[in-house]
Amino acid sequence: MVKKRRLSQNEEAIRGILIIIAFIVGLVFLRDILAKRGVR
User: Fold this and answer.
1) How far apart are CA 25 and CA 15, in angstroms?
2) DSSP assignments along the chain, one per residue
3) What is the reported pLDDT for 5?
4) Predicted TM-score (pTM) above 0.70
5) Distance (Å, rounded) from C-alpha 3 to C-alpha 5?
6) Cα(35)–Cα(4) distance, rounded to whole angstroms?
7) How many CA atoms lie within 13 A of 40 on its CB side?
8) pLDDT tens digit sequence for 1-40
9) Which of 7, 13, 15, 30 reaches 20 to 30 Å from 23, CA-CA?
10) Residue 30 CA: distances (Å) to CA of 3, 10, 14, 25, 33
């Protein structure tokens, strides 16, 4: 049961990190598109 708990916590931590990375990448991607279009 301890192993399962550790795995679940690790999965949640990885999920959070992936969500944050995806969010940052999305912002940068949108920024690049807007910059290319000439939008401030």
Assistant:
1) 15
2) -HHHHHHHHHHHHHHHHHHHHHHHHHHHHHHHHHHHHT--
3) 67
4) no
5) 5
6) 46
7) 0
8) 566 666 788 899 999 999 999 999 999 999 999 998 876 5
9) 7
10) 40, 30, 24, 9, 5
What per-residue confidence (pLDDT) applies to 39?
63
Cα separation, 35 vs 1, in Å, equals 51
**Tokens 């598109």 correspond to what residue?**
33
Q: What does the pLDDT read at residue 1?
A: 54
Residue 18 to residue 32: CA distance in whole angstroms: 21
Q: Which tokens hold the place of 34?
A: 């807007």
